[in-house]
Design a protein that fits this description.
The complex is a heterodimer. Chain A is α+β, with helices and mostly antiparallel strands. Chain A has three helices and four strands; from the N terminus they run E-H-E-E-H-E-H. Chain A has a domain of 57 residues: Alpha-Beta Plaits. By secondary structure, chain B is of the alpha/beta class. Chain B has a six-stranded mixed β-sheet with strand order 1-2-4-3-5-6, with helices on both faces. Chain B has two domains: 160 residues, 3-Layer(aba) Sandwich (Rossmann fold); 150 residues, no CATH class. Classes of the chains: A alpha+beta, B alpha/beta. Chains A and B meet through helix 1, helix 2 and helix 3 of A and helix 3 and helix 14 of B.
């Protein structure tokens, strides 16, 4: 769908609900992702963690930021329609809670 | 209030005073949303020793107050980051509760000279903004992520461990319902417009106002029980359910053929409007992803726009029929 000047891009077809990618080969089993994920997406596994509930990922980015071996990649951001619509209308990249949005 | 990190150690107590409870009430009502701040810096809760734990939080007053009020009878250091009055999770998402700010706060308060330990206990929801291994490189302190909620902190400090429950974000009835007043504040101009409409437009004015209030209060309360996976769809379903009694009443009264177009217009307009309210609730939840919301916007906005347009046309037709202009 083309909505003119608006920056909002539709997601690619046929992809999952999130952009989470786990590269088990790089995992050192440090367990940080198990601690920081608020939705129990990762679970302890055999010598390395495993993706247990990939669909629950909300793309907060906590696991990626705290993984010391870059085994996790996720295009993090805030899942807020109001912020996206507002950003699109104002022509800005992204607004987040605070002075730019929801005041 | 003075800006920046306080150079000296400030003191605080676990007990909230009535002024602070009033501040919380105002925050919950959406009043002065950026004004609920505490001074960033290092606080002594009780009489902490050099070996007492260092707990880190945001300078949103509700975050700071939730932390200290969960620790009655305990001694601890509380390091308050300058997150511009934004709560921990949102500030972490924005990066203001981030690695750089944490390192800056540790240095600005000269924490290393005041405590023997080299561990900072952060709320788990700070993790989207903070990189534990980079904080260690930046200031020598080890980051330890505590539980999601401050109320679980005493257990964590005693046992050193978090249960799965303590590490998982919830969105229970209380969490959802507390959002309603803030939602009303976010829609304040719409609410004012609808209040005027309710006063001057017979029947339809009060109907729209009632349905909007229904959307704001019932939607969060009934969220898990409304059919549908996407929030937009849930909003639409709730809209259809709420309009139905009004539509049945009109059809049973039967004042002429215009009732048919009137009822159709009501369904279309209010389903679209409550769907939109549902879509906008995504940012209030604790589980929506950016990819998912983007998909939802592109899947539902065209439908909502189409229904609203058709509803508008049918409203005009209703007016023409009702006034007997044909």
């Amino acid at each position: 769908m083309d909505i003119g000047m608006l920056e909002l891009q539709p997601p690619e077809k046929g992809r999952a609900m999130n952009t989470l990618v786990f590269r088990p080969g790089r995992c050192t089993n440090c367990g940080m992702c198990l601690k920081v994920c608020p939705h129990r997406v990762f679970a302890p596994g055999d010598g390395r963690v495993r993706l247990a509930l990939a669909d629950k990922c909300m793309e907060c980015g906590a696991c990626q930021r705290n993984c010391p071996s870059e085994a996790i990649a996720v295009d993090s951001g805030v899942g807020c329609a109001a912020a996206m619509i507002m950003a699109a209308l104002r022509g800005k990249d992204e607004v987040v809670c605070g002075e730019d949005c929801c005041r | 209030m003075e800006e920046g990190y306080a150079a000296e150690v400030m003191t605080t107590v676990p007990k909230l005073r009535s002024r602070e409870r009033y501040d919380r009430l105002k925050a919950r009502m959406g009043i002065d949303r950026m004004g609920h701040r505490v001074r960033p810096g290092l606080y002594a809760l009780g009489i902490p020793e050099r070996t007492s734990p260092v707990l880190v939080t945001a300078n949103y007053s509700l975050s700071f107050n939730a932390l200290r009020s969960s620790l009655p009878g305990r001694n601890a250091w509380i390091l308050v980051l300058d997150t511009k009055g934004i709560n921990v999770w949102c500030a972490a998402g924005k990066g203001t509760f981030g690695t750089d700010e944490l390192v800056k706060a540790v240095q600005a308060t000269d924490l290393a000279s005041k405590v023997d330990g080299r561990t900072l206990t952060l709320p788990q929801l700070a993790a989207p903004g903070v990189s534990a291994h980079e904080v260690r490189k930046g200031c020598g302190f080890r980051v330890d992520y505590g539980p999601v909620r401050a109320e679980d902190l005493p257990t964590y400090l005693d046992t050193g461990e978090c249960t799965e429950e303590m590490r998982t974000v919830r969105f229970n009835l209380k969490d959802r319902f507390v959002l309603a007043p803030v939602e009303m504040c976010n829609y304040r101009w719409w609410m004012l417009l609808m209040l005027l409409a309710a006063l001057f437009v017979p029947y339809y004015g009060p109907l729209v106002l009632a349905l909007t209030l229904g959307g704001i209060f019932l939607f969060p309360a009934m969220l898990p029980f409304i059919p549908g996976k996407d929030l937009s769809l849930k909003g639409m379903v709730l809209g259809a359910l709420l309009v139905t009694p009004f539509a049945l009443y009109q059809l049973l009264e039967w004042n002429g053929w215009y009732v048919i177009t009137a009822v159709l217009a009501e369904y279309l307009l209010l389903i679209a409007w409550l769907g939109y309210l549902g879509l906008n609730f995504t940012g209030s939840t604790t589980f929506t992803s950016r990819t998912g919301v983007r998909r939802e916007i592109f899947a539902y906005i065209p439908w909502m726009a189409g229904m609203a347009s058709l509803g508008g046309i049918l409203s005009a037709v209703t007016l023409v029929l009702y006034m007997g202009w044909l």
